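Protein: Polyketide cyclase
Species: Marnyiella aurantia
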Amino acid sequence: MRFIKFGLLITILVLAIYAAVMYSLVDESNSFTIEKEINYPVEKVYPQFNQLQNFTRWNDYFSSSRTMRIEYYKPYEGKGAAISFDDPKNEKSGELFIRYHNPDRTLRMQVFEGEESNPTLVDVKFVKAGPEQTRIIWNIHTPKRKLLSRITNLWTEDEFTENLNRSMANLNALLGNKVEKEYLISSIKYDSLMVEKQEGQLLLGINVSATNTREALFRNIVMNHNKVYNFVLNDLDKREDEFGYAVLVTGADNYKDKDVSYFLGIPLSKRVGVSDNSFSFRTINETQSYVIYYQGSYSGRVGSIQKLLQNAKKENVRYGDIQQVFLEVPESENSVRIKLILPVFR
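Structure follows.
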């Protein structure tokens, strides 16, 4: 009995000291500001916040978990938009509301986590820092904490900053794919031979052999494109705006062969674990290349390929495998839009 009383006395003493420290040294709520810049104009950045289906794609709090379930409520964007979320594996749940928005300028969100009755207030300000730059200013105000749980305020800012760093990297990659695709489609000049510096890429795809006849080859490409595309979307849980165009890599002059071997892959930002052995990674190195944009029947691409090869021979340069970038999903042999890339070396 004496030990029980002594233990109880120690427990009360420890709790009293803890309460005194929390009361005197730790605020009941926490407020802080974080600023970030991103190299995209505000009119492209703001919709990624204001539209909650966009917001949850890149915000690491929601996108990092495969078990996160989210429900979206009308109007989906702007004032009144809301979501509820639940992640039983990571013990996260709550609701998020947009309470105010001023297009391309400001946004106010309220986040209720778990059983918390008081929200975290998130005010986001968007400032044009240049023609293609936006400064994003986050003002965070956490809810008042009870005395015994107030210690969490000591690391709230660090946790938010870490999440924000990962989220901004995701947003930068997402906008990069969106803007690159939009710009590429709008600025295409077909059938003109150009010299471009191609950036390196990491492709995830499959190695294939097919009969080189008009219908058989294209049918084989469509089948394998869909296989890779669905694997990246469903098995890897990627979204369309998270990766680039499908790329077919093959020998530059094998269009004359009876059988064609090729690698068809989709560019990813980094290597991931892949359980299906039929898929593999292939690295495309940064190179100087001859480029032609082509539109027409798939079989008609041969003329553009020959034009690239003739120019390489004329310039007396070595060349590598040709890359066929599908700017549209391949569906009909009679209508494709592709970018033909011939890497060259002097």
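Remarks: The domain at 194-345 is CATH 3.20.80.10 (Multidrug-efflux Transporter 1 Regulator Bmrr; Chain A).
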